[in-house]
Design brief:
The chain is α+β, with helices and mostly antiparallel strands and about 170 residues long. About 35% of the residues lie in helices and about 30% in strands. The chain has a single domain, classed as Chalcone isomerase (3-Layer(bba) Sandwich), CATH 3.50.70.10. The chain contains five helices and six strands. The termini are far apart. It comes from Ralstonia psammae.
Length: about 170
Amino acid sequence: MVLVLCMLVSAQALPDCRDTLHAPQLSGKGALCLFGFCLYDAQLWSAELPASYDAPFALEVTYRRAIERNRLIETAVDEIRRLQAPAPSDDTLAQWQRAMTPAFPDVKPGDTLCGVYLPGRGARFYANGQLTTEVDDPVFARAFFDIWLAPGTRAPSLRRQLLGKSR
């Protein structure tokens, strides 16, 4: 019995990516499914609603499939390149790729990655509740979260759901 209580207290004491938000509120949630295969479930938590780049927010992604770190990072870089106009230089993208490397481990079903947007500062990243890295670059942070939140995202339905919009 004591062991169970200790385990519960320990589990509750684990850091959470939402801990940096003041009174986090769920903005929205949804799943990314392509051709009938769901890759992950996502939740957007914000210090203020509606969620915007004016206040801190946390994007939690819980994976349904195994994906290697390199694939996660390559996809993020490709999407940043596609969404940003003008596209960041190759040197900048390489620097951002290096910054993401400690943030993202290989994931398996059930793993959760979380990014926290910190206005004017950058982003903080967590893997399964553990802080992995902080990137002090507000331009990178905006470009990274635009993957999900920009109007040009490849997942417009998920974007609407995350932002709490029905259509």
